[in-house]
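Following up on my earlier message about SAJ. Here are the inputs again, as you asked, copied directly from the submission form:
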Amino acid sequence: MEKLLRKIERREANVVVVGVGYVGLPLAVELARAGFAVTGYDKDPEKVRRLGRAESYIDDIRSAELAPLVDAGKLTASADLGVLSAADAVVVCVPTPLSKNKDPDMSFVTQAMEEIAARQHAEMLIVLESTTYPGTTREVLAPTLTRGIYELGKDVFVAFSPERVDPGNAQWKTRNTPKVIGGMTPACLAVGRALYGAIIDTLVPVGSTDTAEMVKLFENTFRAVNIGLVNEVALMSRRLGVDVWEVIRAAATKPFGFMPFYPGPGLGGHCIPIDPLYLSWRMRGLKYQARFIDVADSINSAMPGEVVSLVHESLNRRRVPANGAKVLVSGVAYKKDVADYRESPAIDVIHGLRSLGAEVDYVDRHVPEVREHGLELRSVCPSVDYGRYDAVVVVTDHSDTDYARMLSESKLIVDTRDALRALDGDKSKVVRL
Ligand code: SAJ
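Thanks, got it. Here's what our run produced:
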């Protein structure tokens, strides 16, 4: 352990980041900046090519930040697993998605661990950052990385440290976001803290890797459950004839004991809809039903359908049949001002409107085309005449949309984000969640 600790303290350790996506690349940059020789390993040859040419493919990292690190040889890119043989520390930042039946898909993690094990040597630190169910590091990583050959805390050091990357967040970056870390043994924790302590201002050591895994799932389950609650409050408010947006804004004036969340067309992204289901899946294996997670998931998953029904009712009230209606979806990214449309509820809204027979277009400056779940659509031009459509549905409230022009030109607006709240003018044609 001493030899590895010294290498880390002297910044002489070779570090390999496995998976240089929106989590791995910022981490690799900080490690290289701290003086480590860092190799970004990825299966995606396009990422390897672009990183090797100091061309960033992540919005939060400018190419100008990569250039000096790549030129100095501090940050290199590779698709060759052989780099693992020379690694003193390996940080794994690979996806942990859901399978088709909403179970954890651990294939990326297990494959990475097997590739590391096949090139393992004494005195190596391996840290998993991918969000996963409590017990993964202890039950999957540790056995794969010891195999009766290496001893935890002696010649192999294993830890879990959840990622807290918030794409597009200008305030909270890799270095200044407190980072939780748990080790398989105290020595594993000490080595993990030595590495992260070189790049992160505040470390939050916890007693075990299971705890660290649970912290991450709790953080994101907290969001999913509260979003589910506010979506149900929206459904209740509609039936009560109460403006849910006014309710939330008034409740948010409470200076303590309240945290506002806002209704929407559903849950998108690669964290919030997915992470809680890793926890509920784990609990099913322990014969415990994670009721809040299941209820929130059922409410959040039903929101796209609620939006489609609202559009249908609103057209009906204007004696416009949904069948054959021209509808424009404004914004398909999973949340405002991002370009990512993975798991976006807009996909379900478009499918739902089409199932009513509507002719659906979308407009989104951030997403030029959508090729997912059987859709092949291109965004219409942002200067589109909103008046051409029987209804405009605001699904993602991007800041760069001209809502004043939308309000003046549209016949009907179904606003799922209260995006037009600040505007004056004829709101009689605006229907909100
Ligand atoms: N959403 C609502 N109502 C809300 C908040 C979000 O409907 O009040 C929807 C969004 O539109 C989106 C989905 O939920 O479709 C997720 O939104 P998010 O704000 O949670 O954004 P994400 O998915 O980028 O979540 C990430 C997470 N970061 C990490 O996991 C490291 C999350 O923990 C962060 O809290 C979140 O960013 C953030 O705060 O931006």
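One observation from looking it over: Residues 163-166, 219-220, 223, 227, 261-262, 264, 267-269, 271-272, 334-335 surround SAJ (CB under 6 Å). Hope that helps, and feel free to reply on this thread.
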